[in-house]
Amino acid sequence: MKKIMFVNFPASGHVNPQLNMCRELAKKDIKLLYYTFDQYFPRFKGIHNIELRKYPDDFNAYYHQLAEDKRLHEFIAFIYVFYTLTERVLPFMKEEVEKEKPDLILCDSLAIWGKIAARIYGVPMAYFFSSLMGDSVVIKKSPSFALGLIKSALLHFPYVLKFNQIKKRIERQYGKVTDKPQEIMSHQGKFTIVMTSREFHPGGEEYGEHVKFIGPSYREDSAIPEHKDKIFISLGTIAFSDTFWDACIEATKGLGYEVVISFGGAKNNKISRDSIPENVKVYDNLSLGEYREVLKHSALFISHGGFNSISDAILYKTPLLICPITAEQVSNGKLVEQYGCGAVYIEKRVNINKLRNKVMKVLYHEEMKSGLEKYRQSFLHAMGYEKAVEALNDEFGLFSTKTNEQP
């Protein structure tokens, strides 16, 4: 029986897209090890034939310390985060690979430590992208992405020095086994799984067949309600604000919609609960089913621009107003705007009148319906997880196709 190590970058937006991949792999005659934080273990309930392994507690604590630092929300600072996390957890990952001797390492694109361990021990590997790639093709097709990189490098140059120092320390100890900064978000010629459609990915037609565009993590080809009576507002599971929610309530006032706000479980959010209008419902969190039901019936989704949120909105033909927090989300928002699936609002401080103008633009922009339908269809017709696992097996010979299903 072949053994696969699936090395996760331990963030909610990376775990969720990998659940169905694990579910499909677990049906096969293989041994599957999945590495993440133990706080995510409950999400794997119902997936059998999988062994969940937790990252060390000190690594978990260090990760969350970095996540709370708002200075690290820029492109270049993110790269520093990837390298410093790698330096912290690499000894553990190296020991795991040496002990388990896997036949394949399926590596989250941002989990550099998994790539390094595979190179040190000569283990075959494949890459998994939970969002868009960020290679030369994307830079060429998305000028705003390239401009963001340059701007971030100039404004946050000390982080360039820091991550280069970390990279040199790792290479002094283990050799030339570390991704260069420009390689982290690249397929590097490896078998690669990308969680979107070829049509939605910038320059998708330029990638070879080794890059498998399998569509978003969740696909539901159900009827879309003709009448949508809600406006949904959420900034994902990490972001928080003490002013944004009240501004959104004011900007959507009097439009005739029920406004649903979800904090996504994030703490430290502040809202003037004493003066919340009757048409506004506020939730600390929604279950996945509740979230999808609200989104399906929403005429507008005001979002931070996380990639999973964007994909879900397009699936339900719900136009987006992206209010980004990180540089990556700014790039995502501009792509959504370019594709005619919504608009982006980029302001350090929310101006209620400007925000309302954006809300009105998206709500009453009929042409967005065609953009949403175009990319929805591309999602529904992408190859999906089952075929992705078949392609993985064709490439690496992991299981027999005659007796490959686990009971």
Number of strands: 13
User: What is the H-and-E element order?
Assistant: EHEEHHEHEHHHEEEHEEHEHEHEHHH
- What is the C-level CATH assignment of the largest domain? Alpha Beta
Helicity, as a percent range: 40-55%
CATH topology of the largest domain: Rossmann fold
User: Unreliable stretches, pLDDT < 50, 5 or more residues?
Assistant: none
Mean pLDDT score, rounded? 90
Q: Biggest sheet: strands side by side, in what order?
A: 3-2-1-4-5-6-7
Work out the radius of gyration. 21 Å
Q: Characterize the largest beta sheet: strand count, sense, and whether it forms a barrel.
A: 7 strands, parallel
Number of domain units = 2
Give the class from helix and strand content and strand pairing. alpha/beta
